[in-house]
Amino acid sequence: MQSDLFETMLEVIAVEYEAESDPQGPHTAQTLMVTPSPVALDSLPPCAFDADIRALLATSNHPVARAVLAAQTRLPWGSNPVEDLTEDSIAAMITVATLMGPNGPIPAPDVRLGLVYMRPDSYYPLHLHDADETYVIVAGQALWTAGEDVRMRRAGELIHHPSLMPHAFRTGPEGFLAIWRWSGDINTHSYAFIEDLGSALSA
Ligand SMILES: [Fe+2]
Fold first, then answer.
1. What is the Cα–Cα distance from 30 to 35, expressed in whole angstroms?
2. Which positions ≥6 away from 202 have C-beta within 8 Å?
3. Whole-Å CA distances, 24 to 64, 160, 188
4. DSSP string of the chain?
5. How far apart are CA 129 and CA 163, in angstroms?
6. Residue 174 needs a FRET pair 20 to 30 A away by CA distance; which of 34, 44, 66, 121 works?
7. Distance 51 CA to ligand 1 centre (A)
8. Global pTM?
9. pLDDT per position as a tens digit, 129-177
């Protein structure tokens, strides 16, 4: 039953990416659905943000939000592939559950995909990376910077960052939860912050 909930979550995530105009979207969906699921889906201890994540997801009617909430005890929160490249103060405002990539748990050589939760009233500064990236917000909202495009983004919105486009997120009282996908050159070493972290965090 529990693994069914995980499979259902993967299916509804795949539906979101099937609809993406970028060809990497359907490729992502296909990879999600044809690749064997993680060998073990043991229940995991709740992450530090568990109660906040559940409360936020409960506010959303998005199908992915409902599916993530149902599978919450099986999600590997705290598996950010670029955690080593972020300052502690920044790492403390988000948590990532990596679902697919070269290091698993669902193996994929050329795609990374996962969930990200960002806490309320926080600012994640401008950063960039070689990978192309597509987010779909499934709960909450944020003031989203994608290159020159700065606007509120809400549940149901899909946001694409081409390779090396700077992006940043500012949350209000809700925070947000999104799915994210990297494609193209998915190396982690190019991940870099491009604004002064001290001034950004005090802004
Ligand atoms: Fe990014």
1. 8
2. none
3. 19, 11, 18
4. -HHHHHHHHHHHHHHHHHT-SSTHHHHHHHHHHHSPPPS-----PPPTTHHHHHHHHTT---HHHHHHHHTGGG--BS--TTGGGS-HHHHTTEEEEEEEETT-SEE-SS-EEEEEEE-SS-EEEEEE-SSEEEEEEEEEEEEEEETTEEEEEETT-EEEE-TT--EEEEEEEEEEEEEEEEESS--STT-EE-S-HHHHHH-
5. 6
6. 44
7. 25
8. 0.93
9. 999 999 999 999 999 999 999 999 999 999 999 999 999 999 999 999 9
Q: What is the token pair recorded at 108?
A: 């994929």
Q: Which amino acid does the sequence have at 64?
A: V
Angle between helices 24-34 and 2-18 (to 10 degrees): 160
Q: What residues have their beta carbon closer than 5 A to ion ligand 1? A: 133
Which residue has 């940043």 as its token pair? 168
Query: What tens digit of pLDDT does each residue of 37-92 get?
Result: 654 556 777 888 999 999 999 999 999 999 999 999 889 998 888 888 888 888 88
Cα of 39 from ligand 1 centre, angstroms? 28
Cα 127 to ligand 1 centroid, rounded to whole Å: 7
